[in-house]
Design goal:
Helix content is 52%, strand content 15%. It contains nine helices and nine strands. The protein has helices at 13-30, 144-161, 163-175, 179-201, 209-231, 237-240, 242-262, 271-302, 314-336; strands at residues 42-51, 54-61, 71-73, 79-81, 84-86, 94-99, 107-113, 119-124, 130-133. Residues 1-19, 29-36 and 137-141 have low confidence and may be disordered.
Length: 337
């Protein structure tokens, strides 16, 4: 952003105010409520078949959710009187879905365990709340297109709702001065979080989720301090080596993505494809966010919007304050519970 001593032209006053709030204050404050931005909000209804065509259901929920308002939809020949589902001889064949899905849920899942101990998982999102299934053994219900649609959507939803991750990316953009270095920096961040996302998802790395979330918040505090240094005329570590810092902290953020993905209970047979498409969705969302921020900055330069000099440190302090609140909250979760 450009900060100057002389007053801005009156015609730019509204644009200046909007841009300042969008980039400097509104985004960090909006980011405050979800203190655990890397946690997907999932509701899972597990159905276990105990005799042909008859199932017992059990809800599994992530923090902050309950099954109130969620109504499962079963094939018309099935009778659902919680927790018992009776589909008779025709079995669980037909339309499955959920009514009442809203902004609280990233996705809702059916996990079906049949008499032969095989398990089938059906993931639904607010955009696709129903699907048609069959218990025909020859039917591949986890075709790559279904996996792609489901996990790309989940990846996009997760990154766009994961405001702690976006706030870190915003800080990187703020510190990088050239387009070439920005591409290098974001690419390094992407490679790093993809590596640890894969490693943690396959069980090669095991790190306590709450410690990871606290460390992610601390990484945002670090970036906020680096912005303050740069505005004060000091060239910090991130300004000197942005891609190296992005790669280092990207390894940490990847562990956060993995903790979110682990809540989905993905079957081993589909895990590689689910991981691939989830990561692709994350990258699509991240690129969209970067382009949005760059568009705002371009608009700022085009209209020559200016803000008073006293405004210069406000965005960095806002980022640092929000991230510090997250860090303290998450550390409290570690020691109190």
């Amino acid at each position: 952003m450009v900060f100057a001593r002389r007053p801005a032209r009156r015609g730019n006053a509204v644009v200046r105010l909007i841009l300042f709030w969008l980039v400097g204050i509104a985004f960090p404050l909006i980011a405050t409520p979800p203190a655990f931005g890397h946690e997907l909000s999932m509701a899972v209804l597990s159905l276990k078949e105990f005799r042909p065509g008859v199932f017992i259901g059990r809800w599994t929920l992530t923090s902050g959710l309950d099954e109130q308002g969620l109504s499962p939809v079963f094939p018309s020949h099935c009778t659902w009187v919680a927790p018992r589902l009776d589909c008779g001889e025709r079995g669980l064949n037909g339309t499955l879905g959920f009514e009442g899905m809203g902004s609280k849920q990233s996705a809702v899942m059916f996990r079906v365990t049949l008499l032969d101990k095989s398990t089938r998982t059906y993931t639904l999102t607010p955009a696709s709340p129903t699907l048609t299934v069959t218990q025909d053994p020859g039917h591949n219900f986890t075709g790559w297109r279904e996996i792609a649609d489901t996990y790309i959507t989940l990846g996009i939803d997760h990154i766009l709702l994961g405001v702690d991750h976006l706030l870190f990316v915003l800080g990187l953009i703020w510190l990088v001065r050239s387009t070439r270095m920005l591409i290098k920096t974001i690419s390094a961040f992407t490679v790093a979080h993809s590596l640890t996302l894969a490693a943690a998802t396959f069980g090669w790395i095991v790190v306590p989720e709450r410690a990871v979330n606290a460390a992610i918040a601390l990484s945002i505090v670090f970036v906020g301090v680096e912005i303050v240094k740069l505005q004060g005329g000091q060239v910090g570590l991130t300004a000197r080596h942005p891609w190296a810092v992005a790669f280092s902290f990207g390894l940490l953020h990847g562990l956060g993505f993995a903790s979110a993905l682990s809540t989905l209970g993905i079957p081993q047979a589909t895990l590689p494809f689910a991981l691939l498409f989830f990561n692709l969705g994350v990258e699509i969302g991240q690129i969209a966010f970067v382009l949005l921020v760059l568009a705002v900055m371009w608009a700022h330069r085009t209209v020559q919007a200016q803000a008073p000099r006293w405004c210069a440190p406000v965005p960095a302090y806002a980022i640092g304050a929000v991230a510090s609140f997250w860090f303290l909250t998450r550390m409290g979760k570690i020691f109190i519970t």
